[in-house]
Every structure is written in structure tokens, then in C-alpha cells.
Amino acid sequence: MKKKLANLLAGTALLCSLLVATPLSAYAGRWEQRADDWYYVENGKSAIGWKKIGSYWYFFNDNGTMRKGWLNNNGTWYFLNADGVMKKGWARSGGKWYFLFDSGAMAHDCWINLNDRWYYLTSDGSLLTNGYTPDGYRVDQNGEWIG
Questions:
Q1: Nearest alpha carbon to residue 61 among 32, 30, 40
Q2: Which residue from 59, 9, 123, 34 is spatially nearest to 133, judged by alpha carbons?
Q3: Residue 96: how many other CB atoms lie within 10 Å
């Protein structure tokens, strides 16, 4: 009985060591840094275009370089954080505030309602503050509609 138990434990240990030693990178992508740029590599090829990694979206140029900052993709503007993650919600850039929908697309030329407050985004996507909207409504220093 002790010999069977010893063989079972030895077999289990061998199986566990094989599972631990088997690289998962053959089945999933991995991040690579080359100089100051980041790439996501799967099956030996760098990701190109939009790629969801975990629960975040990233964009990679045609050469596989991860993008950061503003991105115009097919006429729609997106903002990618310093870590490359596509931003949603409010983003501050160049001293101005911008709003990005859940799709990541930048709002522009429109009103948005957040927490029962109305805000107007201009043609360049920036939040209008201390002024009047094209349809004649006034917004305060925070960009909130005041009438």
C-alpha cells in the first residue's frame, strides 16, 4: 500500500512539474519592449490595430508599436493613456477636458448628460466653459449648463 501511495505521489509530482514547466506563452500573447516602444506578440507576430488584452483595449500601429495619446482611427478620435489603455469618460489633455464614450470615441458637437448635469462638447471635442453653446445656452466655469 505504501509503495502504491509513493508511486501515485511521484506520478502526481511529475505531472505537476510538467504543467508548471510548460510555457503558456504558446497559447497566449506576451508584452515585449523594444527601445522605448511596446509590442504585444502572439504566435510570433506583433498585434496590429485594435486589440483587447484582458479587460482593456489597446491600439497598435501597422508596425506593431503600441499607441499612446490621441489617435484618429477612421475619422473617430480616441485617447490612449500613457500605458496604452483606451480611455473612457473624462480625460484631460493640453489643459482641456474631453469626454470619451464607452466605445472610446470622443464626444464632439453635442450635449452629454452625466449625473443629471448637462455639458457641451465643442467641434474639437473640448468641454465648453464660461460661454454660450451654438444653440444659445449658457455654461459655467465647470462646463455645466446654467440656462
A1: 40
A2: 123
A3: 13
Q: What residues contact 51, with CB distance under 8 A and at least 6 apart? A: 40, 57, 58, 59, 60
- Say which residue the cell 464626444 belongs to: 107
At 90, the amino acid letter reads: W
Phi, psi of 103 (to 5 degrees): -75, -10
- Mean pLDDT, residues 105-129 taken together: 97
Mean pLDDT of 75-81: 97
Whole-model pTM? 0.77
Calpha distance 127→110 (Å, rounded): 10
Residue 15 has pLDDT above 80, yes or no: no
What are the CA-CA distances from residue 24 to residues 16, 19, 20, 100 (Å)?
A: 14, 9, 9, 35
Tell me, what DSSP letter sits at residue 17?
H
**pLDDT computed for residue 28 by the predictor:** 80
Strands (E), the chain: 30-34, 37-42, 45-46, 49-53, 56-60, 69-73, 76-80, 89-93, 96-100, 110-114, 117-121, 131-132, 138-139
In whole numbers, what is the pLDDT of the chain averaged over residues? Answer: 86
